[in-house]
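In full, the data:

***
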Amino acid sequence: MPPKTHYARSGDVNIAYQVLGAGPRDLVMVFGYVSNIEVIWEEPMLARFLTRLASCARLIVFDKRGTGLSDRDTDMLSLEVRMDDLRAV
C-alpha cells in the first residue's frame, strides 16, 4: 500500500509528496522528467527498492512541479524555483 500523499505549498503551487520510513536521516528521491508518486508503487521492483531505502532513512518522494499530482506550471523553471519546491516539501 502506498504512503499517504501530502501537499506542500511553494509560492502559488501545490507540490505532492509522500514520506516513508523513520530513519535517522532524510533521503529525498527525485525522479526523472515525469513521475507520479501514486503510480510508482504499482511497479513491484521499484516499490521494493523504495521500501528498502526507507528501512534506513526517512524517504521523501515528490512529484516535481508540472508532473504527476503536483500543480501544472508551464513556465520554464529556474534552479532556484526547483530548490524552493524541494525546501517546501
Remarks:
- The helical segments are 44-54, 79-88.
- The chain has a mean pLDDT of 92.
- The longest helix spans residues 44-54.
